[in-house]
Amino acid sequence: MTQETVQEAAPPPEPGPLARLLQELLPGVGFAITVTLLDETVTIGRDDFTRVMETLKGHERLRFDYLRCLSGADYLTELETVYHFYSFEHGHKLAVKVRCPYDDPHVPTVSHLWAAANWHERETHEMYGIVFDGHPDLRPLLTEEGLGYFPLRKSHPLADIEEWQEGYLSAIDEAKRQAASAGGEAAPPMSKVEIAQAKAKLMKEARDKARAEGLSPEDEKAAVRAAIDKFQEDLESGAVGGAAAPAPMSKVELAQAKAKVITKARSEARGQGMTTEDEKAFVAEAIKKFSEEQAGGGAPAAAAPKKEMSKIELAQAKAKVITKARNEARAKGMSTEDEKKFVAEALKNFSAEQDA
Amino acid sequence: MLGILKALKTTIQAAARKPVTVQYPTEKKELPHRSRGFPVLLWDFDKDEPFCTGCQVCARYCPVDCITVTMKDNPKKAAGKSKRKKIVDHFYLDYARCMRCDICVEVCNFDAIVMNNTWEGVELSRYDRQDLVLDKDALLKQSRTGRLKDPFREPMGVAHSGWSPKVEEDEEAEETNASEEGGEG
Amino acid sequence: MATIDYTIPGEHDLETLDIHVNVGPQHPATHGVFRMVLTVDGEVVTDVDPIIGYMHRGNEKLPENCDFRQAIGFHDRTDYLAQFNTEHCYVQAVEKLTGITPTERSEYIRVILAELNRITSHQMFVGAFSTDVGIFGTAFMYAFRDRELIQDFFEEITGERMMYNYFRPGGVAWDVPDNFRERCRQVIGQIKKGISDLEGLIVNNEVVLARCCGLSRMSTADAINWGVSGPLLRATGLEYDLRKAEPYSIYDRFEFDIPTGKDGDIYDRVIVRIEEMKQSVRIVEQALLRMPDGPIMAEGLKRVLRAPEGEVYMRVEGPRGEYGVYLVATGADKPYRHRVRAASFCNLSALRAMSVGNYVSDVVIILGSIDIVLGEVDR
């Protein structure tokens, strides 16, 4: 441990013994050497990645059999994956880094070489959006499925998080809905529940069909899997969700609107000092009126969400301002207090603009 | 069979020992001096006002942002009864958020906030989380009524735990804060 | 790894259906909010899908927005059964980055507390595990009686029973009480008795022998491939302990052994942990003898702690295995990237490999033997 700390004193990065060994064993691969504490660190390009990793695991002079840690990191223009290795045979310690651009976050998987990488890669995928090509199962691990954002990226704010998430997600939904109504042919995306229901139906059908044909359990599984895969493909290309007619309001929205009507009617009735029976009748009438309106074209329903939108848009714009200011402050290396002040000022400017 | 007998031997040996538990609600274990309950504010009986000057150091260093403080001019300074120029105006502490990390106590320049080391204090079981946001009076109540006899303060001072030098006078404290942060920020 | 010959469903006389059994998230056998979906064929488990994340609190993101010192409290809340070990790791990582050298006395205090914390963690394991196995109550109460002693001792020093927040970059927050040595010796004396009690209850217990011997054998190569560390890895026979392999802090000054198992089965994992408690007692005894007087905090520390550009992956041997903190600093007063390598996260990822082919009732023991702490798994 002390040896490595001594090494880091030299200003130009000298390749350590391990880096020299790697250069000898893998000629033609560019190793950028970073001086870090405790472990020797090399950065490699994405093109050489699989070759280097296979050599690290397989070569008898390296034999890195233990993947102790795999982390992602966000460097604003690039995403980075860091692998920390240990070799039980030689006692080597090595850290390998690989970078990928923001708009093409793909890194080959190492989960076939080190089983330990399986969960680490799943976690890094959900937190940073890095796609590990060839990973058997890249489901999210810690967060729920279909989150839509990458929490550990620096662009994801920590404060006002609920507001940000709400604004972000509703903006996505709204954009999709608008695209649907503008294009005419594309229907609103299926909700999660609808997808799951459609999937379950499909699986049942496929299974029944397979059973009717008398397939073995393995073949049956394969048949079901194939059906699911096909469904997934269709879903992505938009073939499944497209059939349904664009509904003016989702069920949930309808229920919410109805609840509003009921509350309003009830408070009105109470305000007029009606008896319980009269109140009930009044509310029932209001509901009836509401349903008629819905059937007749849903005019009030269309108006209601629009007003809400502006609020959400505002919150979203606000979140953007916060994120931007914070990132700027971080880039300048400000202290926590200064950063807070900076962000507060940016917010102030923003609200002043809004008022004007 | 032998194994079970051996295990039984251990059980029988333990049966003769004294119980290690106490009947909690009626009997309470003695708390060590350093015990860390939730933070409370201290009352300065000499000047008949809180120690806290509302300098917001604790609010800034709180990792979970559970403290909100504001400051005002001390009316007693004008009357010549106190040396404190500024005094706390509002102090809100959210017990539902607090993680009892002791950082507010360590950074406080005026020894105004301590961790409660008694069984007494604020009732924590509430129907609404909002009720756990305590104001200045609720936080001062325990110290003011004399139910916080001997609060623990680190004997070596805050400088020892690496946070800041301790300064007695509030003016000096403000100056040092400003210069240190300005110099490094 | 399978200990039972598993016949595929096609060869049964009767047609069988795969059934999914959902265990958790609220289940006493899962030691926290952990869910696993078992696919069973009769009594035999054919697939395990562990589902985690119920306790995800962004413990990697939060410290990236905190001062270096503020983040210590969040480390208590990752592995909440070995708080001093996690703090030790993080504090050392910050010290490496900033170049602070902790004082001699504080190093000893840290080692003593970390080793005592390892004992409490293993006591917790023995108690909870024996409940899993079927020794209801007895061993659990014994283990907790002694764990309570150490926790009282910790409370006298730090004021807290669980989330100590006591170590600081450069030393410890405040000095230990004057009667530290005597109290520690007293506690250690009782702990020794307690360990032999636990040994008497567990080691040759027929229930334990019958249920644990030969169950879920793991080879060293498999364990290494899955990234398994700590007692699980040592139970496979590999003598690997970070305190010896890469001595951090002052561990190179103490004499202790690394207990190992032979088969890598559940029984070995239990025995290794019980032996480890004894080794920890040995370390504490040596440290108590040599603990010097002097300052407990390095001098010349600034109010705002800034780390120069650099990065470090610091690892310590926690009770569950390798606990690592990967810090990237960019010259600011907070880490740019903060990653926690949780031991039970990696160990748990091997659950599927360990349990496929075993009976449903045994999967509960296998899960118990990993000794998961969900705060650490989900972070």
How far apart are the first and last residues' alpha carbons of chain C, in Å?
30 Å
Decide which structural class fits the backbone of chain B. Answer: alpha+beta
Helix content of chain C: 40-55%
Question: Based on the structure given, which CATH architecture of chain C is correct?
Answer: Orthogonal Bundle
User: Describe the biggest sheet of chain C?
Assistant: 3 strands, antiparallel
CATH-wise, what's the superfamily of chain C? Answer: Cytochrome-c3 Hydrogenase, chain B
How many angstroms separate the termini of chain B? 71 Å
What proportion of the residues of chain B is helical, as a percent range? 25-40%
Low-confidence stretches of chain B: 156-185
Q: Secondary-structure element order of chain B, as H and E? A: HEEEHEHEHEEHH
Q: Give the mean pLDDT of chain C.
A: 86
Order of helices and strands of chain C: EEEEEHHHHEEHHHHHHEEEHHHH
Report the sheet with the most strands of chain B, covering strand number, pairing sense and barrel closure. Answer: 3 strands, antiparallel
Under CATH at level 1, the class of chain C stands as Mainly Alpha
Please tell me what the overall shape of chain C is.
globular
Number of domains of chain C: 1
* Discrete helix count of chain C: 14
CATH topology of chain C: Cytochrome-c3 Hydrogenase, chain B
Spatial ordering of strands, largest sheet of chain B = 4-5-7
